[in-house]
Request: fold
Amino acid sequence: MDTTVHNEILEVIPHFAIYGDFVSCKPMGNGHINSTYCSVFNQAGTQVRYTHQRINKNVFKNPPQVMDNIKSVTEFLRKYFKNAGLDDISRRTLTVVPCWDGKLYYQDAAGEYWRTYLLVENVKTYEVLENEDLARQLGQIIGAFQNQLATYDGPRLADTIPRFHDMGMRYEQLEEALSKDVKNRAAGIKDELDFLFANKERGMVLVEGLKSKKLKEGITHNDTKINNILFDEKTSSPLCVIDLDTVMPGTVLFDTGDLIRTATNTAEEDEKDTSKVQFNFPLFKALIGGYYSEAKGFLSDYEKSLLAESGRNITQIMAVRMITDYLNGDVYYHIDYPEHNIVRARTQIALIKSMDEQWDKVKAFIDGLGK
Ligand code: GN1
Ligand code: MG
Reply:
């Protein structure tokens, strides 16, 4: 047994409806919000793996509601894939393993919420994309995911984090953090704050588009960073969109935005050397070309015109959120070291600057899409 395993998980696992003999469990994953473990069971001679997650209730105020959403979405997708004649469906969408009492979560004595999924085997993830072919396929799977969810006919989905991508609210939170400055960090990040406030106005385009109904509201993923997509280890093709905690109403541009933010960056989200952070135009073209091949049937002209802008916009909102957390003393995102949030924010700002430098060709590419 791995000694790094936290004892709490050993109390939690037996509540889930898993047959066979428990073999081992260890921490896994690198999400910024939930804590994840992987367990192994011996089921009559076959080793089967599960993932267990503690849902961060500081972030998700109503974990049972999150699980209801996930159940509705994964059941819908399973049906969809079945109707499309696809095989290997338990690798194409997540499978929730309920508790013995039928609940989709277990609440431990400390009040923490836990959930379990089948672990999707033989897959890999990327922090930085390696080539244009991967980018094109990544764009396609997110376009397809949105296409699938456009026909969603299950129970109404809850807003698991209200106003999640509302730039106006995110700036209000930044202002508040700045006025309190609980860690006296504001003085050391003047350039970053100046940049974000100077660009506040242009950041409002998506949230205002939703308010004025110039942008349609549909069901979107809202957290399409590239490591939330599992790629098949053998074929290298994207297979499964995971991290469904924030699947809820939004504009498709929230998803293209996060995809652009993470797929076109030549460096990782928390690269300390910002000179390594560049917006990679060939990757952008491949990504959006792939996305557009799936999305052209449902994208309005206005949505299409904002495809590139969505990348800049979601990168900006992440910078605002990361800097806010830095000022608040790192209460939201998991951090590995004290400067982690400001390092992340600087990377986002460097990426926006690199996009700005290449904006003419980016715009020209978007204008020429489909022509
Ligand atoms: C968080 O859970 P994870 O690590 O996929 C965050 C996203 C940010 C992302 C930045 C619920 O995502 O909004 O884009 O970190 N999720 C939540 O890496 O806040
Ligand atoms: Mg997440």
In short: Residues 307-328 form the longest helix (22 residues). The pocket of GN1 (ligand 1) is lined by residues 31-33, 59, 223, 225, 228, 243, 245-246, 269, 318 (CB under 6 Å). The mean pLDDT is 96.
